[in-house]
Inverse folding.
């Protein structure tokens, strides 16, 4: 399950960066916020959010 969470987090971060690069800042902000929530939830439950890089 942890691997799936890491993959989902990575996909969210990648998509956010793509929107940011296209100047779609509102969409990027929404996705970056979702990524941060995913990391915060994983940390509060004691799980590792997965390596991003």
């Amino acid at each position: 399950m942890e691997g799936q969470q890491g993959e989902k987090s990575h996909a969210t971060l990648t998509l956010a960066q793509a929107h940011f690069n296209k100047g779609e800042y509102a969409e990027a902000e929404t996705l970056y916020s979702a990524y941060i929530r995913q990391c915060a939830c994983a940390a509060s439950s004691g799980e590792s959010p997965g390596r991003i890089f």
In short: The chain has a mean pLDDT of 82. The chain has one domain: 2-44. Helices lie at 2-21, 25-44.
